[in-house]
Amino acid sequence: MFEKITANWLSFGILFLLILLAVLLLWRTRRPHLQKQPRKDIMPGFTLIYADQKQSGKKSEGFGKLLYSAKYDLQGKPDYIFKKRLGSAIVPVELKSGAIKDAPLPHPGDLLQLAAYFLLLEDIYGKRPSYGWLKYSDYMFYVRNTRNLRKEVKQTMADMRKMLEDGEGTPNASFVTCRHCICNGTVCPYGQYHRNGGEV
Ligand code: SF4
């Protein structure tokens, strides 16, 4: 009798764990890669552990320091890095002064900059950030650190290094990549969209 009750509880426990696992997997695969929201500047449950500038009147050791990753040969100063109070999650936040208005996606260069910070922080803190925030003056984007994004930024870095070495490169000119680029219509002969609205 006792053995039968124990076996029933064991089967129930295994079933419960399997259901929990299925729900977690579903949640992981359904999570959006990018999500646009009205901008907010609060990070409840997080502590600021780095800023690209010293913070007056606050404990700010290491703030303003140029961060370097030997593994990726990358350096930079993310605007802010937050750490979750419960746990060890690291979240970079990058601020942009302009507005994004109705655009459904962030500017590609801004996205790659945040993706490069994901790599930098992964090496420095020994923990891969699972997401970060790109904040424009009007909206902000939740950006998940996906395998595809990491692949894209590593490929872009490799292309840029090759271009610096041999002086040759293929521009990735398109309406989307060029429309907010400062070089478009000024110094770049490959721009696809002039800022005055004219086609090339
Ligand atoms: S305008 Fe030129 S430099 Fe700027 S994104 Fe387009 S191709 Fe690249």
TrEMBL record:
Top-level lineage group: Bacteria
Gene3D superfamilies for the chain: 3.90.320.10
InterPro entries: Cas4_exonuclease, PDDEXK-like_dom_sf
Record's keyword annotation contains Acyltransferase: no
Cofactor: [4Fe-4S] cluster
Entry's Gene Ontology molecular function annotations: hydrolase activity; iron-sulfur cluster binding; metal ion binding; nuclease activity
Keyword Protein biosynthesis: no
TM ranges: 6-27
Record key words, sorted: Hydrolase, Iron, Iron-sulfur, Membrane, Metal-binding, Nuclease, Transmembrane, Transmembrane helix
Protein name: Uncharacterized protein
